[in-house]
Structures are given as structure tokens and as C-alpha cells.
């Protein structure tokens, strides 16, 4: 895991020093940059594989291509053997050099053979092209922007904008989407002109910017269809086959020359990953879990994590979250050009990562299991939308929008699939006045829907609605929200997070399974539950899906430091949010009555994180 950044100019350059400090937390072990033709490539290294021989930027033995790479390639040893048999030579044992070998042998099409997570940039001396690429699940981020005389790229938004030397205008549509749906759809970001590179895509940049074109080299949806067609008429997989596939993925994700551990929430996915890791040997597994003490409004997940740790013999380190952590860490996450990070769980993840970094450099987590094996309750409930829709339409007004039941009712009442599936992840903490002001300012509410409808139109006709929902989440919710947040919070602590439930050898196969195999009644992930029933506590196997919940309202009301921080930022005379919200609206958000509900507390926290980010993104003073 590392950080990359660089620029492709419209002319050949001799010298172009890069300031790598903005990405030093992603790669504290080494930094380097090189000029290649019209491109300058920069890298900060977190050493994981081939500690002595993997320095970057790296060139192949003949000096034809040079690369800067963020991520890990889990099948690099097998690819190396194949390439060596074809006559290629290697100077290191690094997975980075294997990417160069695959490119030189097979071009951009060779990227599809990489099993792993990655974002990289390479320069080809033969024709002067520079190629950016991102893994098919979008596990690793890569941002880029095209200015009149250069194309800039970086692993993080803040580093990119610093490199470009500009502060673009805010994309108000993306801001609105982030507030209402938790993330901006497609390749859009919160800044105009700044794009995410799409998952499974290479951006080929001709020498001196003569042409820039995207090349799709891998597609999760195409892999799902391949497995679906291969499995037509086949019997349901046995528990042994499911267990073998999950074990294979976890085993590949353990390749490292440094200590590793896992995040253990006590949920099914992280417990399955931990149980697989515990079979690897080499002493007790290091596991990390976060919780809180003394709260009345929520229940900590620590008891579930303890039960799993006891069952698998893991060495569990429990991290206690306190109100002061929110006051200390919110400015780190949201008070920069990379923000805002408005989910309270991100504070917990950052503290957990900082603690884990004291012992290990690599952690495995269960992200992606819900999307792969249909674990979210919405997957089961949505099948009954036609039956439940009319009733939900009648009661959704009574339930309100700031509750899980309210969100479910609002989704089920919608007949249009695209709108309904977007509503399932709707944010119950979006201040209505703020959203309305953004729309009046020019935000386009139909842009996200158009993107979703376009994706759904491209899915094969033979898919079930469940498979469509799963792949849509794999293509949008994960890369633009959960994975992006996970990458940023872990890399702030200089550790690498790996997600074995997102693997081309496992995930498309799981999605392609028939609905009846994955769901039973209102319960999902049935193949995984059955396969790991002999290995995990019953309380974990039977536990319903539950998001990470914190006593945020209780802390915002009762902790003086956190309360004062929220008031100081949101009620300051020059608060940036004042361009969209009145003082009275902000005061209402901070009232004890509003903070007494979970939804009200999240509203206040969303506003605070947005204010922290606007302070960095819009440094000019905005008067009341």
C-alpha cells in the first residue's frame, strides 16, 4: 500500500520536482520521483512485499516502462512464472515488477489478469504514452484532472489539488448527492473537473496529451454473467465448496513480508475472515475491535467480538471510543480537502487503525461480504416491493425519514426500480433546508438517477433483480463510499486494509448464485452461514445485520468538549454553511430536543463535518 501522484505535461520536461509530503502518511518508509519524457511520476512507499527490492518508481530490466503503484497483486508469483517461461527477466521479487511484465507482454489487456487491489501509473518509453489503471472493484482510489496544459493524478484529492495548484469550484450536484445518498455517483467528485478513474479502467494518455482515452479492461458485471451462464442447471454449491472458495481468497490476501492482523466487529463477514485467518498458523491471530463504555442509548459490539475471538483463539485488542475522540479526529478526517467524512463510524475506524498500526502493517476486514452474498436486509425485503408498496406509501409519512423504518417505507413505496434502489441507502441525516438550497443553487437531482438507469440498462436480461441490486452496489456504493472511506481512514494511520470478500475469483461467483441459494425468508448470506456454522458461535451466525452504531447524541449533549466544538464551528459568524442555512436552522440542529434522537444527532454531525470540510475547500470567508 502506497501513495502515487504525478503529472503528464503537453511538452517534454527535463526536471520537475514533486512535493510528496501530502502523501507521506500513505508511504512513510520511502519516497521517490522520476521524470520520464513528458511525465513525472511520484511515489510514497509503505513496504509490504520485497522490503529491500521494491523501491519505486520502478522500471523493467530493459528500461522500457516505469511504474508507480499503490496496492497488492496476490497472484504475482504465478504470473511471474508464466512470464519467465515466455522469456521475460526480473530484477526483484516485487509484485510491482510483475505489473510491468504483464503490460509488456499483453498491453492494457494484461491488467485483467491481475488478482488484487491496485491503482497505478506507468510510462511507456516506446511511444511516450502514460497509462493510469484502477482495479475492477475500485478498492484503491485514483483521482485525476485535466487542465489546459497538463493532466494530474493522485491517490488522494488533497494531494491532487495541491499538485495542480488550484481550488476548483464545488460540484454542487455531488455535494447534494453526498448529503442525500452518502456519496456522489459515477466518476464525479465534490470538485468540478476532478474525476475518479472508473474501476476496471485504464486511462491511456498519449505523449504530450495529444489524446486521452479510457479503456475498459475488466468488468465485474461481465464476470457475474460468465459465472451465471456456467452455472445454469447446476446444483447449489455445497458448504465445502463455499468454504474452500472463501478460504482461497483469504489465503491469497495474506501474502506479505510484514505482520498482519484483522478488524473484528463481531459481524458475520469479519468473523468469517478472522476464522479463516486463524487457520494460517504462526501464533494467535491479532484482532482489533472498537466499542464504547457507559452509554445508555446504544449497545457496544464488543461482546460479539469477544465471543468470536474466544472461539477461534485470537488475541483480541479492544479499543475504547470516547467523546474526546470525536473532537480530536473529526478535524483530521473532515477538515481537509479530502473531506467530508460524515459517518460517525469513520471516527471509530480511524482510532481502530491508529491502534492496529502499533502492531501490524496489514489488516484484513469483511467489507464486501454483504454485496457478494446478499447480506443487507434490503435485498430480501425488496423482493416483496410489489406487495408491500401500497401499504408503505400509506404509512411512510407517519414513520418520517430519520429512521431505518422510514427509509425502508420510502423505498418500498416507489415503483421505479432505479429510484427505489437508490432510496435504500438514502441518508437520514441530510438537512432538508440545506438540500433545498443546493437545488436552488443549481444542483441537478436527476444526474444520479440517469447514471443508475444507464447501468441497469446494460445488465443482462437473464439477471434477477437481486443480482442487479448486488452489482449496482458493487459498482457504486462500494467504490464511491465504503471502500473510499476505508482506504482513507486506514492510510491516515499508515496501514494497509485488505478485503478478501472482494476478489474476482470469489465475488462474481457468489453474486451469480441463484436467489434461492443466497436468501431464505428475510435472511441473506445463507451459503456463508451454512459453511461456517461449525466454526463460529451461534450468536454470530444468527445475529441480524446491524450497522455500527454509536451514542453520538448522548455525547453531543453531555460532553462539554464535543458540544463546544460543534457550537463553535457551526454558530461562528463566518461559518461557511451560512450560505445555505440560516442561523435558526443551525440552532435547531444543536438543540437538546433534536440531539435526543439518533437521526437528529446524525443531522448535527453531518452539518459539523460539512462545515469542517468547507473551511478547507472554500478558504475564503463567507459572511452571514
What does this structure look like?
The protein is built from 27 helices and 17 strands. It has about 625 residues and is an alpha+beta fold. The strands form three sheets. Strands 2-3-1-9-8-10 form a six-stranded antiparallel β-sheet, covered by helices on one side. Strands 4-5-6-7-11-12 form a six-stranded antiparallel β-sheet, with helices on one face. A hairpin with a 5-residue loop joins β4 (about 60) and β5. The longest helix has 28 residues, at about 465-490. The two termini are about 45 Å apart. The model is unreliable at about 620-624 (pLDDT under 50).
Unreliably modeled segments: 619-624
Q: Percent range for helical residues?
A: 40-55%
| Count of alpha and pi helical runs | 27
Number of strands: 17
The main pleated sheet reads as: 6 strands, antiparallel
Cross-sheet strand order for the largest sheet? 2-3-1-9-8-10
* Structural Rg: 24 Å
Q: Compute the separation of the termini in Å.
A: 44 Å
Query: What gross morphology would you assign?
Result: globular
From the helix content, strand content and strand pairing, which structural class follows? alpha+beta
Strand content: 5-15%
Mean pLDDT: 93
Q: Which characteristics define this entry?
A:
624 residues; alpha+beta; 6-stranded antiparallel β-sheet; 15% strand; globular; 27 helices
Amino acid at each position: 500500500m502506497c501513495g502515487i501522484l504525478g503529472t503528464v505535461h503537453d511538452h517534454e520536461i527535463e526536471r520537475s520536482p514533486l512535493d510528496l509530503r501530502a502523501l507521506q502518511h500513505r508511504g512513510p518508509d520511502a519516497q521517490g520521483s522520476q521524470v520520464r519524457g513528458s511525465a513525472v511520476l511520484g511515489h510514497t512507499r509503505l513496504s509490504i512485499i520485497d522490503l529491500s527490492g521494491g523501491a519505486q518508481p520502478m522500471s523493467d530490466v530493459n528500461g522500457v516502462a516505469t511504474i508507480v503503484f499503490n496496492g497488492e497483486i496476490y497472484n504475482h508469483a504465478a504470473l511471474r512464472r508464466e512470464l519467465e517461461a515466455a522469456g521475460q527477466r526480473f530484477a526483484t521479487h516485487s509484485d510491482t515488477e510483475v505489473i510491468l511484465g504483464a503490460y509488456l507482454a499483453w498491453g492494457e489487456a494484461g491488467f485483467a489478469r491481475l488478482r488484487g487491489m491496485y491503482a497505478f501509473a506507468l510510462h511507456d518509453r516506446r511511444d511516450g504514452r502514460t497509462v493510469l489503471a484502477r482495479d475492477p472493484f475500485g478498492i484503491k482510489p485514483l483521482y485525476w484532472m485535466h487542465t489546459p496544459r497538463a493532466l494530474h493524478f493522485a491517490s488522494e484529492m488533497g494531494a491532487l489539488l495541491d499538485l495542480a495548484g488550484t481550488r476548483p469550484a464545488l460540484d454542487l450536484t455531488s455535494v447534494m448527492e453526498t448529503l442525500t445518498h452518502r456519496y456522489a455517483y459515477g466518476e464525479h467528485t465534490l470538485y468540478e473537473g476532478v474525476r475518479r478513474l472508473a474501476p476496471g479502467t485504464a486511462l491511456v494518455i498519449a505523449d504530450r496529451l495529444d489524446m486521452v482515452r479510457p479503456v475498459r479492461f475488466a468488468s465485474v458485471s461481465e464476470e457475474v454473467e460468465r459465472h451465471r451462464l456456467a452455472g445454469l442447471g447446476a446444483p447449489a454449491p455445497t458448504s465445502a465448496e463455499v468454504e474452500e472458495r472463501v478460504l482461497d481468497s483469504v489465503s491469497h490476501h495474506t501474502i506479505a513480508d510484514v505482520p498482519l492482523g484483522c478488524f473484528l466487529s463481531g459481524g458475520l463477514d469479519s468473523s468469517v475472515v478472522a476464522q479463516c485467518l486463524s487457520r494460517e498458523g504462526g501464533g494467535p491471530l491479532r484482532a482489533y475491535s472498537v466499542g464504547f463504555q457507559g452509554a445508555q442509548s446504544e449497545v457496544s459490539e464488543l461482546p460479539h467480538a469477544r465471543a468470536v475471538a474466544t472461539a477461534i483463539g485470537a488475541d483480541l485488542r479492544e479499543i475504547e471510543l470516547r467523546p474526546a475522540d470525536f473532537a480530536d479526529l473529526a478535524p483530521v478526517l473532515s477538515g481537509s480537502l479530502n473531506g467530508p467524512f460524515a459517518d460517525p463510524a469513520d471516527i471509530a475506524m480511524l482510532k481502530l487503525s491508529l491502534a492496529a498500526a502499533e502492531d501490524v502493517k496489514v489488516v484484513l476486514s469483511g467489507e464486501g461480504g454483504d454485496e457478494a452474498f446478499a447480506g443487507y436486509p434490503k435485498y430480501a425485503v425488496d423482493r416483496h416491493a410489489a406487495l408491500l408498496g401500497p401499504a408503505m406509501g400509506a404509512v411512510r409519512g407517519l414513520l418520517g425519514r430519520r429512521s431505518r423504518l422510514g427509509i425502508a417505507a420510502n423505498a418500498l413505496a416507489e415503483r421505479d426500480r432505479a429510484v427505489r434502489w437508490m432510496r435504500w441507502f438514502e441518508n437520514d441525516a441530510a438537512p432538508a433546508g440545506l438540500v433545498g438550497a443546493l437545488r436552488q443553487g443549481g444542483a441537478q437531482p436527476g444526474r444520479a438517477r440517469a447514471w443508475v438507469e444507464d447501468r441497469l440498462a446494460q445488465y443482462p436480461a437473464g439477471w434477477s433483480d437481486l443480482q442487479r441490486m448486488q452489482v449496482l452496489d458493487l459498482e457504486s456504493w462500494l467504490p464511491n463510499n465504503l471502500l473510499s472511506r476505508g482506504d482513507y481512514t486506514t492510510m491516515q494511520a499508515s496501514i494497509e486494509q485488505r478485503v478478501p470478500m472482494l476478489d474476482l475469483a470469489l465475488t462474481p461467483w457468489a453474486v451469480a448464485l441463484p436467489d434461492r441459494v443466497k436468501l431464505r425468508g428475510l435472511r441473506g448470506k445463507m451459503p456463508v452461514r451454512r459453511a461456517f456454522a461449525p466454526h463460529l458461535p451461534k450468536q454470530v451466525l444468527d445475529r441480524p445485520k446491524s450497522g455500527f452504531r454509536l451514542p453520538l447524541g448522548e455525547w453531543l449533549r453531555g460532553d462539554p468538549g464535543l458540544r463546544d466544538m460543534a457550537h463553535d464551528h457551526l454558530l461562528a459568524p463566518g461559518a461557511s454553511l451560512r450560505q445555505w442555512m440560516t442561523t435558526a436552522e443551525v440552532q435547531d440542529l444543536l438543540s437538546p430536543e433534536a440531539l435526543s434522537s439518533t437521526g437528529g444527532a446524525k443531522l448535527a454531525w453531518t452539518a459539523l463535518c460539512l462545515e469542517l470540510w468547507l473551511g478547507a475547500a472554500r478558504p475564503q470567508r463567507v459572511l452571514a
